[in-house]
Amino acid sequence: MKNGAWRLDRLLSYTLVNILIALPQATAADTAVDFVQYYQRAYAQGRDLIPAPIPPLDTSSIATRLDLQTIRPQSALTGTGFVALDGTIVKLAGVQGCLSTEAVEFNGLRTTCAMVSLAGMTATLNEAEAGAGNAFPCHVFGNAPGTPTVHYAECFFVEDGGVRSLSETLISRGLAFAARDGAGRPVFPEYAKAEEQARRDKAGIWANAYFVHPYGARFRANLSTN
Questions:
Q1: Which string of DSSP letters, residue by residue, matches the chain?
Q2: 55 — phi, psi (to 5°)?
Q3: Whole-number Å distance between alpha carbons of 114 and 100
Q4: Those residues with Cβ within 8 angstroms of residue 1's Cβ, 6 or more apart along the chain or in another chain
Q5: Number of C-beta neighbours around residue 197 at 10 A
Q6: Radius of gyration from C-alpha coordinates of the chain
Q7: Residue 222 class from Cβ within 10 Å (0-12 exposed, 13-18 middle, 19+ buried)?
Q8: pLDDT in tens, 102-112
């Protein structure tokens, strides 16, 4: 195993254990910490409290009129969303987290698919912040009405001298899946390719023999061959 992959596995395992220990019986969002724990606990139970965009997003703008905003992350809330330092929520548009509470095996730990996605978002966010200088450039596709403000966006960071999508990183590591529209088409075709590669590599969640894919089909990873 490459050193980078080994460090990532250790970071993910450490993050997962910490989340499992720290999640309290939160019932209200009275403070910033309670706010984060309220969302995280719901996600661990298979519920994503960050609303989906209505109507569907026009994602073509990222190719035709890229407009990057600086967003400073504070903490992961779900497998695909985080809260910024200004209190706004960012939900990544190109990726879908796993909400299944089915038991899975991850780096030797018995946990759930939802917890793997949540821990993956937390660890990847922390790792990406180092290359982003604690400030992600994000392209915002749209916002949800109400409070708190929710931005639907794609965010980027620098890794090994190249620019990477936060969504694609989660997908390629087998921590989440390529988002699809109502017709089942991938929002970003290149992310679907990253998901297929992660499946072939048995990365992250894909290392399990069975789990429930977020789009309803049951996938099987063949653990007997490489």
A1: --HHHHHHHHHHHHHHHHHHHH--------SHHHHHHHHHHHHHTT---SPPPSS---TTHHHHS--EEEE-EEEE-SSSEEEETTS-EEEESSEE------EEEETTEEEEHHHHHHHHHHHHHHHHHHHHTT-EEEEEEEEESSSS-EEEEEEEEEETTEEEEHHHHHHHTTSSEE-B-TTS-BSSHHHHHHHHHHHHHT-GGGGSSEEE-TTSPEEE--TT--
A2: -75, 180
A3: 5
A4: 9
A5: 14
A6: 17
A7: exposed
A8: 888 888 888 99
**pLDDT tens column, 159-174:** 777 889 999 999 999 9
- Closest Cα partner for 98 from 219, 226, 4? 219
Strands 103-106 and 109-112: antiparallel
Q: Among candidates 127, 101, 95, which has minimal Cα distance to 15? A: 127
Q: At residue 156, what are phi and psi to the nearest 5 degrees?
A: -135, 160
Q: What is the pTM of this model?
A: 0.83
Cα–Cα–Cα angle for 60, 64, 69, nearest 5°?
Answer: 90
Q: How far is CA 88 from CA 2, 34, 140, in A?
A: 37, 15, 12
Place of tokens 């989660």: 170
